[in-house]
Each structure stands twice: as C-alpha cells, then as structure tokens.
Amino acid sequence: MTEKKAGMEEKLWRxxxxxxxxxxxxxxxxxxxxxxxxxxxxxxxxxxxxGYTHTRPLFKHxxxxxxxxxxxxxxxxGIVDIDDDEVLTFKLESHNHPSAIAPFQGAATGVGxxxxxxxxxxAYPIASLNSLHFGHPGDRGHTRWLISEVVHGIGEYGNxxxxxxxxxxxxFADAYKGNPLVNAxxxxxxxxxxxxxxxxTGVGNSLMIVGNxxxxxxxxxxxxxxxxxxxxxxxxxGAIQVGDPFMEKLxxxxxxxxxxxxxxxxxxxxxxxxxxxxxVETASKAGNGVEIDVAxxxxxxxxMRPEEVMxxxxxxxxxxxxxxxxxxxxxxxxxxxxxxxxxxxxxxxDGMYRVLEDGKTVGEVPVWSLMDAPxxxxxxxxxxxxxxxxxxxxxxxxxxxxxxxxxIKLLGSPDICSKEWVYxxxxxxxxxxxxxxxxxxxxxxxxxxxxxxxxxxxxSNGRYCYLNPRTGSQSVxxxxxxxxxxxxxxxxxxxDGLNFGNPETPDVYYQLEQAIMGLSEACRALNTPVIxxxxxxxxxxxxxxxxxPTPIVGMVGLVKSLDHTTTMEFKAEGxxxxxxxxxxxxxxxxxxxxxxxxxxxxxxxxxxxxxEAQTQAFILKAIRAGLLSSAHDLGDGGLAxxxxxxxxxxELGAHIELDANIRADALLFGxxxxxxxxxVTPDKADQLMDMAAEMGVEAATIGKVSxxxxxxxxxxxxxxxxxxxxxxxxxxNTGFDKMMKTxx
Amino acid sequence: xNWGVLLLPGSNCAEDCFHAVDQVLGQPVxxxxxxxxxxxxxxxxxIPGGFSYGDHLRPGAIAHLSPAMTSVKAFAEKGGLVIxxxxxFQILTESRMLPGALLQNKGLKFLCQDQTLRVxxxxxAFTSEYEAGDVIICPIAHNEGNYYAKAETIEEMEAxxxxxFRYSSPDGEVxxxxxPNGSINNIAGIINRNGxxxxxxxxxxxxxxSVLGLSAGKGVFVSMLKHLEAVNS
Lengths: 744, 233
Description:
The complex is a heterodimer of chains A (744) and B (233).
Chain A: H1 12-15, H2 20-30, H3 36-45, H4 48-51, E1 69-71, E2 78-81, E3 86-94, H5 96-101, H6 103-120, E4 124-134, H7 141-161, E5 165-172, E6 181-191, E7 206-211, H8 221-224, H9 245-259, E8 264-269, H10 274-286, E9 289-293, H11 306-311, E10 317-322, H12 327-336, E11 341-348, E12 352-357, E13 360-366, H13 367-371, H14 385-389, H15 403-411, H16 420-423, E14 434-436, E15 443-446, E16 453-459, H17 462-467, H18 469-485, E17 490-499, H19 506-526, E18 530-536, E19 540-541, E20 545-546, E21 550-559, E22 576-580, H20 591-597, H21 609-624, E23 630-633, H22 638-650, E24 653-658, H23 664-669, E25 676-680, H24 682-694, E26 699-706, E27 710-715, E28 718-724, H25 725-740
Parallel strand pairs in A: 4-5, 9-12, 17-18, 24-27
Antiparallel strand pairs in A: 1-2, 2-3, 3-6, 4-6, 7-10, 7-11, 8-10, 9-11, 12-13, 14-15, 15-16, 16-21, 17-21, 19-20, 22-25, 22-26, 23-25, 24-26, 27-28
Helix pairs in contact in A: 6-7, 6-9, 7-9, 9-12, 15-25, 18-19, 18-21, 19-21, 22-25
Chain B: E1 3-7, H1 14-25, E2 29-33, E3 44-47, H2 67-77, E4 81-85, H3 87-94, E5 101-103, E6 111-119, E7 135-142, E8 146-148, H4 151-159, E9 163-167, E10 187-191, E11 197-200, H5 218-232
Parallel strand pairs in B: 1-2, 1-3, 3-4, 4-11
Antiparallel strand pairs in B: 5-8, 6-7, 6-9, 9-10, 10-11
C-alpha cells in the first residue's frame, strides 16, 4: 500500500465532507491514515444520507413492531402482512437536492430509486406515490418550471416503467421556494415465501452487478445531499443521476425471474453511494467481508478511478449475492432480457472491505467501521418564531364580510384545488388494480384474485409542523390514517420521510426531535408502527433559509373486502349528512388564516389521540357494516371546504343547518381535529347514529344532500354560505391551471 | 380459441391484456416472445400498450422490426385477427399494417384519463357487441395519440367505415372540445380494409374488469371471441 496518503497537511477529508474529528476517528479505526480510495469510502458511508448521523439516535423513539409487521426498519424496505400468506413492502425516499438543480432527472431517478428498493425485497412494484412541495406557483416562473419538470420527470419514468402513480400530494409555501421537496414512495406486493434480504452470506459466494453500466454520473450524491443547497451547487451537477426507465423495466422482469429460482442469497439495490454502500450493507449484515475488483465492473466511461467506480450512483443497477456455481444460470436469465450479470467480487470471511483494481489491492478497511458512522446528539432549542406565532389570538383577525367569496378563494387555492393537472400526466391505471383513482382521500388498489385491497396515501403539513412540530407531526400521522379509514382501509403501518433544514442549528434540531416524538406518539396511538423511512436534512439555502420542518408520512392500509371501498363524494339526494367530532373556535395554523389573512400564525388545533383513534374505529365499523354512502375527513379549509368537495365530486348540492355558538369563520374554515363528514341513506341513519352513541363518538346530523346543485350553509338561521355548485366546481377544478398559466 | 399477447421489452400492458383474456374472457392465452418467429397455434393476437424499447427513436419504431412482428404480419395477411392497443397501435402504423401515424398530443403532455368514445361502426369483428352510436368509457394513457393521415387517406377510411371509435362527450357529441389529443376527426381507433387488423389508442382491457368500476371495453374482446367462434364453427 504505497499510494498517496490523504495526508493530514492537505486536509483532503474536509473537501470530502468529513470533519476533523471524524477523520481522527477513522484513522484510529484503521490504525493508519487512509489513502484516497479509503477516504472516499468513509466520506460517503459517514455522510448523513448513508450514515444517518443526526437522526439515528432519535429513531429509537419509533414504535417498529406489531402483529402485522414482518420486517421493520433495517432492510431496503419494511414489510407488512396482509393475510393469506401475502405481504406488502413499502418505503419512501427523498430526492430533494437533485430535483432542485435538475428537476426532471432528479424526480425521475427518485421514482426509479425507490422502485428498486421494493424490487430488492423480492416484490413486484404495484404503486407509486409522491409528495411534492414547492414555493407558490403564482410567485415566479422558476417555481412553475420546477413544478412542470418534476411532474414531467415522475410521469416519464413511472409511465414507462409501468408502475401506476396512484396518489400523493402537492403543497405550497414560500419556505420551499429555494429548496423544493420531492419524496417518492413505492409499494410492492409478494407472497410471504418470496421475501428477499440484503445480506451477503456464504463465504465464496459471488457479488454480481446487474443492470446498467457504471459511469461518472451521480458522483458523491450522498454527500451532496448532506450539505446545504447553495448557489455554487450548480457545480454539483455531476452529482445528479440520469434515469432510464426502460432499463429499469427490464431489470424488474429479469430480477423477478431470477428470484423464482434458488440462485440468490441476497439482494440490494444500488442507491446512494452505489456499489460501495450496497456491498458494505450486505456484508455487515452477514458479519462477513467482501472483495470487489473495480476492473470487473462494466463501465460506460474510460479511465475511471477506483473510488469513482465505487461511489458512482449510475442508475438502474442492483447487487445480487449469488450462490457459488450459479453465476452462469443467473447470467443466462439476464441475457434473455438483453442485460448482463457480471461477477465483480465475492464474499470473504475476514470482515474486511477490500477494493481491488486488476487484482491489486487499492483499499482495505474493516466493514464494521464503515457502518459505524459517528452519531451526533445535539441540544435543540425552540425556534424563536414560536413565541411570536403562538401568541396569536382569534381576535387578531376580523370575520370577513363575504364568506362566500372566502370559500371560493379557498377552493381555488394551491393546497386545496384539484391536482388533476398533475395526475392526468401520470398513468394511474396500468397494471389494472386501481379501484379508487388519485384525487380521492386515499387511492385503493385491488389484490388480483382476492376480494381484498390496499389503501395508500402520502401526507404532510409543513405549516402545522412549523407552528408546532410536536402536534403538527402527530397531525400528519392521523391525517394519513383518516384518509385511509374514510376510504375503507384499516391503517397498518407507515414509512416516514424526515425533511428538515440543517440539523446542526439548534432550532432545526429541536424541530427534528419534536417531530420524531410526535410521529412516534401518534403511531403508537393508532397502532401504525414505522417500518422504514428516509431522512433528508440540510434542506436550506442562503437566500431563503430552512424549509418548514416537513415530516412526510406514507401510510398503507388493508381493505378487507372491496365492498368496503368508500369515497368522499355525495351519492344520492336525500342522504343525511353527518358531522363527527367537535368544532372548536380554532383558527390557528389554518389554511384559511394563511390564504385569506396572509398569516402563518397560531397553534395547531388541539389533538386528542385517543378520541381520534376511537372516531376512526367507529368509521371503519360503520363502513364494514355497510352503513355509509360517503366519507371524507375534514382537513385544509375545514367544514365548508369538505362539504364543497363532497358536493363537487358527487355533482350534488347540500343544504346544511348548524347550531354552533362560535365565530362564523372558525365554524366554516377552522381546522379542529378528528372531524369527519359522512353521508348515509335515510333508512340507515338511525342505526349509524346509535352506533356512534354506543362508541362515544360525537355525531350530529347537519343537513341533506340535494339535487338543486346549490351549496347552502346556515348557522342558527343565519345564511353563511349560498353558492351555485358550478361556481365552486369551477374554482376547484381550474385553480391549478390558472396558477400554472400566470405570467412573469 | 387461443389468444397470444406479444411480449416486447418494455410492453408494460402485456400482463393487463393477458389478464383481460385469461380472467375476464376466460380464454386460453399465452405470451408471444419478441425474439420468436414461430407464433404457434394462435387465433388472435394482441399487441399491448406500454413503451416497447423505451419508445427510443419513436414509439413503435424499433418494435416493428422485432422478429415476432414479421410473423404477426404474415398472420394478419392470412386474415388472422390482430389488435394493437396504444403502443400496439403505434407499432401497427410503424409497420404499415395500418395507415397514418400517431403524433404527439396537441397539449404536449402525457394524458391519462377515463375517456368517453363513440362507437362508429359496429359491423366488424371487433365491435359487434356494440351498437353504432354507443358511448363507452375507455381509459387513455398516452403522449403520442394524435392520429394523423393524409387527407385522401382519411377520406377513404371514413368512406369505408374504417373509423371504429371517436373521442366524444358523454352524450356522444364529437367536437374539438371532446378531442383530447388533436387526432384528425377525433379518431381513436381504426380498422384495416380487410377488417382483421385494429389499432386503438384507448385501452379496452382497462375497462374490461368490472371490479375497477369500468366494463365497456370488454365488448371489444367479446366481439373478437364471437367472431372467432363463428368462423371456426
């Protein structure tokens, strides 16, 4: 080992993204100074993106086990049991920084990457979702360009690879102006017996690389994701990968065909830090060493240095750990699909991670040390803005004179309006499983050959988490569960995406810590453990500062019979409209306050997790008893918006009479938690109300569905809202198109 | 009756078509591998949608050169029933088994939506289950579905009743407003002069399984089956 040492005096490790103390630690682990290859290994594996240096200590709060949990965090994706010896695997992943710089490729490769995580579990990918956050689209052309490109990238990749994009969310706030969020989620289906693990067992077994050639794209992507996004990051363009969905489609087919045989002991997708992290993780799990010769890796560029080959993030590649002697059989199957499967190394018994070039060792470090990234437990400090925002009182704003106009404005506002502009660019029907399409509270997919289905949703609320990270994060979990429950699905588990600013600043660390506590509490209350997730920190720019703390929840639920599938739209004239829950005089943190009064102020509405769980249990019971015509949760924009949405989608009117003693704006647009809007045929109304009383759930009949295509809301005989449905529908349906057509 | 679904690399709707024939129609079906020229004993062939060869160059441009397509052509020349759906339609125009071409949508964006179609001609082997003038819902999902052909070709096709489906409103009105992609005369599906090769951009297989809330597309497959049974009896 006579190569050039990284050299203390050159402080090369700083350029690689390691701190002085981290460098001292790795030198201690190695018993010597690293060479440039070895330094590159540590720099990638010890980045926040691969090593979860700031988040790992906080993960201990997450509940991760439960009766339906087959695999918790630690594999490529978690697994849940959906009965009949069938399982689902799902996970979400962020691709924020790449999407900020090259939105089309950034988003596309985000979709491709998460699909491979699911494939690596041995599953067939059956659904994609995505959660997108941008600055306000009407604000500047750059934002509209980002939105167009991200949506185009997701569509182009998902449509071609043949995995339906069935849901997600699109939210806007100035906080995302400089640093958009692109989180992609994938759900896979398999039989229990088909589960694969990311493990390199069996000394002498071969490491085979399959799929794409390796090039210089995506160099250092993991460390790029682990620092603030700055103007100079345009130089990081080389860190952005380029996607090939056609290759991915072939890879899916070939891998699943190979998995049918008994050739493979372990599988890992190549995501962040490519060959390096995939092989380190599989070796570490087995307690083995590995040896990889970079000369054997099929490349598309010449003269790549060993460390470049190791950390390249070229897309559409997987690592297979193949039983010794089975390599040709594996290659034959890949050949059928016009792909290669090439042996690049093998499993060893010495616990070392050894990189060779043409048989000559160019780097050698202990496997355990690469996995043992130092962690940082910092002391958080409540952000200064909280004192200001929580001092908000309802009396700080007046009740607007024209509440009709407020409703119309809210229906056309960015977070609330129809996102059909987006999802009509996504193939949401391929694979023929989509029972409930995007645009609903949750999307429902059937499981072929069975009567059951799967509900999927992705949710977040950055504004809530900014104003109260703890309750805000709890709200995100319960919101996801509400979306599933009103669709007839029983929530099973979540995957979480922790999108935050720089954790090294005390207020961001506080947000991160509080958010993880909040997510954990809500997951416990609703019996939806965390089975995996992703952390994306350093989402901030010098110009626009840190993003809102944005934990994103991807939740999956089981629809026990497709007969239970329920949607939000009103179904028939004369149906009774029922409101569940208590409406308090709560304006804080609301969409109404933001959109109408331009204020991101107040506290998140009070949330009682027990009451929430009980109300959700009631709804599921009512659905399973066949009592409900429609169900919808109250979220952004409160009661009036929820009623309008059920009317617009059902093309039916509603006449509502309330008897509340609170401000009209709080009554109509406040976002008191744990509330739901149901409709029921008159003959089943009594049974439903009795069931609610039995279960201690507050329920009130507030009106009837009508055919007059009018939305009328009265409170104590005072007419608050009186609008033609056509006007509401027009605002809701055209709001997004109008924003995207803004000039400037 | 034996059905074959052509399996090209990237044809991501092959399984859906297989499912429609196997599970909805209850007929024997198998995949036809793109590298094989021997199609075996098949009575009808479906060229499914998707992105064969990743749509590289142009949708269908590479797929129509695949070995199996030579045999599909020969099969069609002998009168065998062939239906190309979405990318399958693009492959059929690329291979000149059907006239015209499919250009990019006028909106320049991929478009996925449940689309209403008016049935124009029900006296074919693919549409006998419908009445002329019926309006059916059939999802579309494409970026290049804008049907184009020379004026005299269009005229000839219209005169011969070769237009099977047009994009319409739910009450059967055909206008620019009901044209999602810019196709000439709102053309969504056509048939060749011999009446045995159909291409359509909408996906009848996606509205064949009633569990998904749509079932009108099933008529295409049932029509084909009835025709085959009549011919073979």
